[in-house]
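so i finally got all the pieces together for this one. its two components total, 266 residues if u count the protein bits. some of the lines might not be protein, just check the labels. i wanna see the whole assembly predicted at once instead of chain by chain like last time, that was a mess tbh
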Amino acid sequence: VTAHDSPAAAFRAAVEAGDVDAAVALFAPDCVFHSPVVHAPYEGRESLRAILAAVTTVFEDFRYTAEYAGPDGHVLEFACRVGDRDLQGVDVLRGGTGPDQPLTELTVLVRPYSAATALRTRMAEVLAGGAPA
Amino acid sequence: VTAHDSPAAAFRAAVEAGDVDAAVALFAPDCVFHSPVVHAPYEGRESLRAILAAVTTVFEDFRYTAEYAGPDGHVLEFACRVGDRDLQGVDVLRGGTGPDQPLTELTVLVRPYSAATALRTRMAEVLAGGAPA
């Protein structure tokens, strides 16, 4: 077990290790996920788990490239590929403003449009083929 | 003239005031803009000016909602509408790590996909109707 300065740092480490369970465990039970693609929020840890598991399959050559902190949370910047498209994105994490505070919200934004289109297609395929959230 | 803690804070103030010239003046001549829609970077202040002027027309009810800082730059989170679509976005600003340092890079990411689609359509219309960058 590694100690982290913040739940955001622990989230980064869990994602980098491909450990979806550890990432989800940092969130409150009533956490909210805002998808880069879908308008409506996803509510609860089980929705988040299904999304993160799917993303692990869809994002290739994933790496975090920068970190930012503010009074409301943290931003983690990343790069990856989806199929043959280069994708750039950010994870905006809210909550977790102290070491013992759970994360409450994850919002993901991506660019450019061609990569968002590829992500939308691949996520629909993977979520349709998996267990319901 | 208002003093700002950082070029990122000055950028936020210029955008909030609708002052495209003041926003562009914070950037280095060889700055780079990464569009939320287009893969290829836009180079130079005049490209940035054309984009920011178009965005001013396309983004309605624009407001910044959060700020984050890191060793490489700043992230400004915003919300707006494009037509009847709610859009959430971030400005990632690089450079400007001291009060006298110019900004070097602006990257914009948006969500959800429906809003990115509306933005793509509206930006193409506005840029086609305006002066070439």
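The first helix of chain B runs from residue 7 to 16.
Chain B touches chain A at residues 34-39, 66-70, 72-75, 77, 86, 88-90, 92, 107-117, 120 (CB under 8 Å).
anyway lmk what u think
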